[in-house]
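Entry type: protein chain
Record version: 2
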Amino acid sequence: MRPVDVSPKVMTLLMVVQGQRVLLGEKKRGFGAGFWNGFGGKVDAGESVDEAALRELREEAGIEAVDTTRRGLLTFVYDDQSRPMEVHVYHASRFTGAPVETEEMRPKWWDVEDLPFERMWPDDEIWYPLFLSDRRFAGTVHFTNTTTIVKHDVREVAAETLAEMVRERDAARQS
């Protein structure tokens, strides 16, 4: 396993949840192709994490979230990737527009009871229960061969703790 001694790629992941259904997108190309996932990607230079989450949703699903809240902060460490990923996980329940298929994602509504975990990233089964029950969470997931979990320490955290973790990460990036 590679030591985590390089700065992580800062990423976003936004899930739209309305009642008992979740909007996921089937990734059509690039890293994670074939998996169903929320909408997100890398934070561009000069862009805040919050701005990136909204932009990625707009680019990948054609909709504008109007009530995003940060629910989690996850670090993914892969033995076959050069850098870990620091993923800021967001929730939204309201949006404008209608979900549309894009070059990158094919959106589809799923009932919470029928989420396609067998076709999602394997870590989703660890943190989705926290996410869907309106709890905050943080932790690190270590993978081998991109998709096999070796270990994790994902746990529920207080909202204030999550906010402090985000502030610390932001300050470290700016120094």
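Comment: The chain is about 20% helix and 35% strand.
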